[in-house]
Structure formats: structure tokens, C-alpha cells
Design goal:
flat; mainly alpha; 3 strands; 5 helices; IAP; BIR_rpt
Length: 132
């Protein structure tokens, strides 16, 4: 086990928390306060309100647009297979809420998976014209 690596990650996390200790929208700090924002949301969304609220998101009142109460990140146009924690980490890997709940390793894994998936997608989509 590399204790130095974990020590560095922990120090980095503590430093990030100290610098960004105040949420953008503190009135939505509790899960229930975030969940209540989904009362007016259309039930035809791909993502369930419990998962979104658990990930720090509040409903904005427009389409499927949600906002992180902590970092202010706005996300919308959700697709069926989108995983809220991963999307949050991918679009704002410095969000303290994600760092505290999921940790640095989760964020690194999400970024690496995204890079790997894009590499596979781009290699599959390459096509070549042939001239006979």
C-alpha cells in the first residue's frame, strides 16, 4: 500500500474543502430540501429525482435541467444511460460535494472511463473511402 499517495490525496482534498467551503445555494444543503424542488418536474425524465437529489442536484423548473447546490453546475439533456454521480464528476471534477461523497479515486475513474470510451468510439467511427 502506498501511504504517501493516500496522504497526498487527503491533503489535496482538505485543501480543496478549505478553499471552497461555502456552497453556492446553502438553502439546499439537505437531501429533503433538494428533493422538494422536483415536485413540479415532469415524471417523463430519464433520471429519477431521488438519485439526482442525492447527487446534490436541485430541479431548476426547466425541462430536465438540474443544478448542483454546492458548485452551481447546470446539467441537462439527460440520456437514458447517464449516471448522475458520474456526470456530475465528469463535468465538474472539483466540486467539493462530489469530492466529499465519492472521493478523488471515483473522479479519476470517471475521467479515465470517459477517455477510454471516447477512444473506442472514435476508432469505431473512422471510415475510409476506397477508390476502385
Amino acid at each position: 500500500m502506498n501511504l504517501l499517495k493516500y496522504s497526498t490525496d487527503f491533503q489535496s482534498l482538505v485543501h480543496s474543502v478549505e478553499e471552497n467551503s461555502d456552497p453556492e445555494y446553502p438553502m439546499y444543503s439537505s437531501f429533503l430540501s433538494r428533493l422538494k424542488t422536483y415536485d413540479s418536474r415532469s415524471p417523463q425524465s430519464y433520471q429519477d429525482k431521488y438519485s439526482l437529489a442525492q447527487c446534490g442536484f436541485t430541479y431548476t423548473g426547466t425541462d430536465d435541467l438540474v443544478q448542483c447546490y454546492y458548485c452551481g453546475l447546470l446539467l441537462g439533456k439527460w440520456e437514458k444511460n447517464d449516471e448522475p454521480w458520474s456526470q456530475h464528476a465528469l463535468h465538474n471534477p472539483k466540486c467539493i460535494f462530489i469530492l466529499l461523497y465519492k472521493g478523488v479515486q471515483f473522479i479519476e475513474n470517471v475521467k479515465n472511463e470517459y477517455i477510454d470510451n471516447n477512444r473506442v468510439s472514435s476508432s469505431k467511427s473512422e471510415s475510409y473511402d476506397t477508390i476502385d
